[in-house]
Design goal:
The longest helix is centred in the first third of the chain and has 64 residues, at 27-90. The two termini are 71 Å apart. The chain has 365 residues and is an alpha/beta fold. It has helices spanning 2-22, 27-90, 98-104, 112-123, 140-148, 165-177, 187-196, 217-231, 267-277, 285-295, 299-306, 312-328, 333-341, and strands at 129-133, 154-159, 206-211, 236-241, 257-261. It is 57% helix and 8% strand. The chain is built from 13 helices and 5 strands. The chain has a 5-stranded parallel beta sheet with strand order 2-3-4-1-5, sandwiched between helices.
């Protein structure tokens, strides 16, 4: 392209030179000039084309070199961030969690049996991961926070909308370092980072995944379960499930999984909670019995009561009405009614040949 432009330019110059020499009768000179111009044009064109070729070759070579260096550059960035993760988790600890604030106000009910299991797992050397499960509002998050509060090397991340591994890894990395990870930071890099961590007492760092209710809970559970298998090789993993039936997603890897049930408070623990949070509003034995016998002893329910101005009678009545509404909407209510009337067993004729398939408990998943 470059040589063609020069050649065209020199041809135009040659025509002008031929025209100017015609008046003097120098036709031969003009022809010689034109021939020289052609030679010059050809030479300059060749040189120009060669120059462009050399320049283009150099640019291609530089570009190729830059592309070839991208993996090295990404690896350097990944290594730097990996170091941040290692340093970050080594200094991570649960310090201002809800359970800590309750403890400071003397409102936390210590549950030594459960807390000991959690702490023994984190401080121990057994590989695998632990799943905390139980009914809603039994205090699963609080008991984990209280058991691990102040222990170095513990990172806690709450998952609500995250469902795929990439989003979960990003959330975890951000919780540890305080900044978003580079786009290429992946599970392999995180494993490498955790492997670098050396805590004073020789234990591995701990990661707590708290899975809240979300639109894509099943996908989140599958991703966390998959991550836990790999991360448990270099860290202690605790998974806290907000919903009771979420535990059905586990139980298929008996060699890695450990389960801790967080049930409702015992009557003595429930009494302690009420005593701690209802100062100036002491309940009689009859009132406590009415509350426990009708609504149970879940930590969440008792906390709601302590935060309300209702009497025990009104609080119980309101919650029972809400429970009846939920029961009315339950599609398998006839089965529950049959079991209530005949706890020893229901005869087939009870349903008058109506079919209620219920739930196949041979595989509730």
């Amino acid at each position: 392209m470059f040589s063609r432009l020069i050649l065209n330019s020199l041809r135009a110059t040659g025509r002008r030179a031929t025209g100017s020499g015609a008046g003097s009768g120098s036709g031969n000179t003009s022809k010689e000039s034109w021939g020289n111009f052609q030679k010059v044009a050809t030479s300059v064109g060749a040189v120009g084309a060669l120059g462009w070729f050399v320049l283009l070759t150099k640019e291609v070579r530089d570009f190729s070199s830059a592309v070839a260096n991208i993996p090295d550059d990404l690896a350097k960035v990944s290594t730097v961030f990996s170091d941040k993760v290692a340093v970050g988790i080594k200094g991570s600890r649960i310090v201002r969690a809800g359970a800590t604030m309750l403890t400071e106000k003397n409102e936390y009910v210590i549950r030594p049996g459960i807390e000991r299991q959690i702490e023994d797992f984190v401080r121990g050397h057994k590989r695998g991961y632990t799943v905390l499960y139980g009914n809603k509002d039994t205090g699963k998050s609080y008991v984990v926070e209280h058991a691990l509060c102040g222990i170095d090397g513990v990172a806690m991340v709450k998952l609500t909308t995250q469902s795929d591994k990439t989003a979960i890894l990003a959330e975890l990395s951000t919780a540890i370092t305080g900044q978003s990870p580079p786009a290429h930071f992946n599970q392999v890099a995180l494993l490498a980072a955790l492997k670098k961590v050396s805590l004073p007492d020789g234990r591995r760092p701990a990661i707590v995944f708290e899975i809240e209710r979300g639109d894509d809970k099943d996908a989140c559970l599958a991703s966390v379960r998959s991550l836990a298998k790999d991360l448990s090789e270099v860290s202690r993993i605790i998974i806290v499930l907000s919903e009771a039936n979420a535990v059905l997603a586990f139980g298929r890897d008996i060699h890695r999984e450990k389960f801790i049930l967080v049930s409702d408070l015992t009557p003595e623990e429930a009494k302690q909670l009420l005593d701690q949070r209802t100062e100036g509003r002491a309940l009689s034995t009859e009132e406590r019995d009415l509350l426990f016998e009708n609504l149970g002893t879940s930590a969440g329910m008792l906390t709601d009561f302590c935060g309300s101005d209702e009497s025990v009678d009104k609080f119980v009545a309101r919650n029972l009405r809400a429970a009846r509404c939920d029961l009315d909407a339950f599609p398998l209510k006839p089965i529950l009614q049959a079991l209530k009337e005949h706890p020893e067993g229901v005869i087939p004729g009870y349903f008058h040949n109506a079919e209620y398939k219920g739930i196949d408990m041979s595989d509730p998943r």
